[in-house]
Amino acid sequence: MSAEASRWHPAPDEGSPEIKRTAAAFLEIGGNWSNGGTAVGNLVRAGASPSAAATAAILHPSTARAGELAVVYPQYGGLAPDTAAVIALVRQTLHTVSGPWIRELVVDVRLARQSGGHWAVERLVAPTSLGPPRAMTDMAAAVLAEPRIILPGPARDDVSTGRVDTQLLAILHALSREFTVAIQVMHAGHVQTVYPTARVSNHAVGRAVDIREIDGRPVVARSDDDRVLRLMRRGAELGATEVGGPVDLNGLRNGFFSDDVHRDHVHLGITPGDPPAHLR
Known about the structure:
This protein is an alpha+beta fold.
């Protein structure tokens, strides 16, 4: 399977674009099928391993007769020398006997470097849930109703469960007074640990959000833009205890951080008991 087959094209500032293109190609091949085809069959014919292809069944609901998938954005979820996680937001049109069904998914794609140096998808991780719904708070309802907070389907479902941290939602809502933010992922579809460790991520418990675009422009394309830095600072001022992004705003002090994974998004998280990220 060649990454060159992908219809998703990286921006000039993308880090290790071959990893993202490999993940995107896998999703596009698996998510586009018709005339009796299957996601799994498409991938096996394209050269994916049978074990990796089998995990793509999530792209092919049993009621669908055809599928058309486009990758909206593949964000990094983790990078190690020989393994990687890509958190891909996709939009898929499924054709059923009842008519077309358009859905958005956030898919956790795991990859490994092969002996020849190229990357291959090992598996798609099945999405998780925050658990049974609770009554929604007024703040959750306000976030869902705010047009300047652009929520993909899985993040909207996370908020609708009533289980996303209220303080985190209040930070998002306050940011929307100054910025239009496009959310990549909250809980569903995110890596559940701090990759590649076993430490539980704040995303796993509804206390973190990743922002891929600010005012209509991708974070990865504007890493030196003052707007990204202003949003990161405001996140800390509003109470975020974790602020990750393209730039580390406070060096060795706690709270702000940057690495290769966070060049393409801004991460805001809340750890109970920790102080807000320290500004200089």
